[in-house]
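This section describes the prediction task in plain terms. A model, or a person checking by hand, is given the sequence of a single protein chain and must write out its three-dimensional structure as a string of tokens. No templates, partner chains or ligands are provided. The sample shown here is typical of the held-out split.
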Amino acid sequence: MFAARRTFSTAGVFHLDGVQGLHWKPSRLLRILGGREMAVLGIGAAGCLALILAGPWGATGVVGLVLALSARLAMAQRRIIGGDGAEQLTTLTLVVVLLAAAPVSSPQRIQFAVAFIGGQVILAYLTSGVSKLASPLWRNGSAMTGIIHTQTYGLRAVALALDRIPRSSLILGWAVMLFESAFVLLLFGPHWLVIAVLACAFIFHLGCAVVMGLNDFLLAFPATFPCVLMVAQWLSGAVSGGGSV
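The expected answer:
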């Protein structure tokens, strides 16, 4: 939140006048939010704290979901640029859980929410991997080199290491592409393989957070891994005849 304060200040990249110009017409909501960004973030943090302490299924949890989702949508409107897939997944997760929790939760609605979130995460990895495979820049390794050398998403020490080690960018890029594209296969593997793949995914996001500064992915994606694990278990039980979703 303290770092965010600087980005919304007069000299910040998300200064109100600059963001206003990105809207196709004057936004009254944007003017209301201007100068109140820290309060909105505080409301979102309070909602998340309520979810952590009370869980999402009771009245307190529903209030927490509404606060967290409202803050997320408000900040997306206030900032309008610079979003990423982690924020999209966070919004989607909050919406789905809120629909399952309110007005009254039920086992069937909870199961549907878990299945939907797990499926969405698997689809996110698959589409990310396939889209990279379709790019010649990723296939020849230059995309990885270019990203790591940028000021926004790069780390100088890693960039220098990739420059010193021949074909390292190519190998690293193909490792990312194959891992993301094959992520869906964990649904058909044994339990230990599912756990191993999810552990590798966590390490992957940890590395992206350290090297590229994508710390929101480290929170958004691993938070959904229990849903992926449940989906894999349901499918395994259905295939073996031991149960169904």
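For orientation: The radius of gyration is 20 Å.
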